[in-house]
Task: structure prediction
Amino acid sequence: MSPVPLSTLLSHPLVAYTIEFDNEFEHLIPHRTSQHGATGDKRHVPWLVSMAMWCNCMRYVDAQGVTVGELERLARTPTNLPGMLRWGYVDAELAPGDRDPKHPGRDAVLRPTRAGERARQVWRPLFDTIDTRWRERFGDDRIRELRDALTVIVGGLDAGLPDCLPILGHGLFSKVQQAAAAADTTGLPLVTLLARVLLAVAVEFESESKLSLAISANVLRVLDTDGVRVRDLPVLTGVSRAAVDMTVGYLETHRHVAAEPAAGRGQQVRLTEKGLAAQQATPELLAAIEERLPVGDLRSALAGFGADELAKGLVPYPDGWRAAVKAPGILPHYPMVLHRGGFPDGS
Result:
């Protein structure tokens, strides 16, 4: 049996950390959601979003203001700016020539709304909060071992990598841009170290594969030539139905799968010859990428963060939206960070 890919070993603690972080943010900030209502006056509270929207946006948007172009330079990855405007986190002072207030140009100045500033105050200390919980849960020695192994690899990577996984673009590829200046890598939170190493693996994978790692590691991984019901894919992959639908649509368009009626009702998808070849090539490519990285003790350090251990931090608050839905039986094998708010499972 082939060893579990390094990307999967990195993804599971990264997703677990993010969900725990998001649960705490949800608990502390008045917010609104589509299916679970609002806490407080829904006219004056922001839409609930994930940690990614702090890392690629609100971390850099303060009362002094920052231009759209400068925000992208600082974050080293684009944000979902139309969403952050619409969801109530930022306001934009349009620049001359801007015609669409929903899509400000690069010279427009962004500032936090009152709700956005409140969210900034809640977000800022949460990394220390969750890092402390993990040290208490897993032990100082295990966390130190993991940080040390990750830091060795991060030290040899492009310093311009963002502090979080980018929002997945067309085809669910992880696009990385060249940074104008090197980023400081000292004192990074554990989740940022995990994200940078995982992103480096994804960039290498996607430079040699016609399918993204997000697609290959999640949906493509669980398909076969007999057919799998589409409605079963969220349970099998740990990603949302929206992320599954995006993935299946892309795979079908590029003839990696064929969709057909399932027995009873609904649809199923089965691998085509092209899809089977891509599925079979994925483990070999991931193994080759792992050999190119100075992995050192990383595999053994990650071994202590199995599903049972990670699950202890995934219990939501009783009033949280995740408490109202069925708990996933599996974490994504690669995070599905979408424009829908940046949640790691595409929710």
